[in-house]
Amino acid sequence: MDKLAVLKEYFGYTSFRGGQEQLIDCILSGRDLLGVMPTGAGKSLCFQVPALCMPGVTLVVSPLISLMKDQVMALKQAGVAAAFLNSSLNERQFPKAIANMKQGMYKIIYVAPERLLTPGFLDACAGLRIDLVAVDEAHCISRWGQDFRPSYTRIPEFLEKLPRRPVVAAFTATATPEVRADIRDQLGLRDPFLLVTGFDRPNLRFSVEKPRDKRKALFDFVDARQNQCGIVYCQTRKQVEEVSAFLCESGFSATRYHAGLSDEERRLNQDSFVYDECRIAVATNAFGMGIDKSDVRYVLHYNMPLDLESYYQEAGRAGRDGEPADCLLLYSARDLQTARFLIEKSRENTAQTDPVLAAELTARAMERLAIMSGYCETPGCLRGYILNYFGEAGPESCENCANCLRAAQRAELGLDNMDRDNELFRRLQHLRGEIAREQNVPAFVVFSDASLRDMCKKLPMSMDSFMMVSGVGRRKQQAYGAEFLREIRAFVRDKGM
Ligand code: ADP
Ligand code: MG
Fold first, then answer.
1. Distance between CA 72 and CA 168 in Å, rounded?
2. Could you give all domains of the chain from N- to C-terminal order, each with its CATH number?
């Protein structure tokens, strides 16, 4: 069957979404690929459709048991012979599934990475024609990513053990350019086609607030949105309990969700949100991996997440239908302490088995945390900050984040942005001149005008956000960061920004 027939026949859709067709064609032509598309873009179809066009079997490596289950269920519903092999199968079910697999009963097999190298699975694979191995959530292979899973690093070993190397297609929603390169190398992709679709979600309005009283800020926010659905993310289970109790006592219909509840209650609570019995879901980051509710009108973070990838993924659950939605982060210095504590705790856990790895992961986690807190502190465009982080150029002014809207308001009030930028530009030029004279080099060797302009635009407040200025590498950050930051901070203070 050709791809359009498969699309209609099994999935009921008549046209592909942006990027899907290119990736499908690539797989069908036999070439490896890396597809980077935001959550909800439709990555699953990019491997499911070719799986059904090709004569052999497709393996899908996926890290989450619940996700595998949902997808296999959906495929079966669509009439596709699919199965999953993971730790949720018991001692009778697993060999049965392997036996079925050997007999060629499955077209698409979801497999947990830890299962790949088990003798039973390898044996079953040896007798099959495997055309495609799809690696979902491929960022899990990278130590640079926020969700590193050691078992992912053994995928190449598995591929080598196969009688014939299949096409390998990797997919992820959250990958910085560094992580992308890492996925390609670690996974051993061969001349892969890279597709990155835009990460911008123009309908999301981003804002950060530092309220003295978070409860009051939360109350005011949800009170103004009584008949809208929203998610309130908290850092810890304890906080989920407190915040959901507070909302219920205040007369809102809120439900709670975290990994400490029974499976039964989690399912009930999730359903009551999905089916609109409860307007507000208060949850830890355990919530949302599987849900596809398109009319979430706001995502409020009661605490700062540990990294910008997680933040964007969670905030991105708002406004899937393309209608306007709010993403508000309530930030406090306490959040930073809690985050450090959590990172330290996870370091201690890993250190018991692998101290070297623990040190490396902790260093990375701290870098990501600094970038996250930079987001909370930047007076520049919030959308631009996020997009830059994902390697995309942000707009000059997005006109739909709290900082840009505030700036526009100030401009209307007579405080002209152009003048402001020019004034800062002159101050930075002056500083650059002094440094250049001191070091006896031409000024542009210190920083180009374009870099100074970018500083005026981004207004970095920390060493980490300074790194995001165009033209600033590690060495220049270290050599000049402190002085330029001091000047920028002084300017921001002088202007009362
Ligand atoms: P991702 O893995 O990129 O987050 P999914 O594969 O889970 O996204 O798809 C998100 C939703 O989009 C699903 O409900 C899926 O059925 C739907 N979808 C995917 N492709 C299409 C398409 N071509 N037309 C209509 N809906 C689609
Ligand atoms: Mg997916």
1. 20
2. 3-196 (3.40.50.300), 204-398 (3.40.50.300), 405-494 (1.10.150.80)
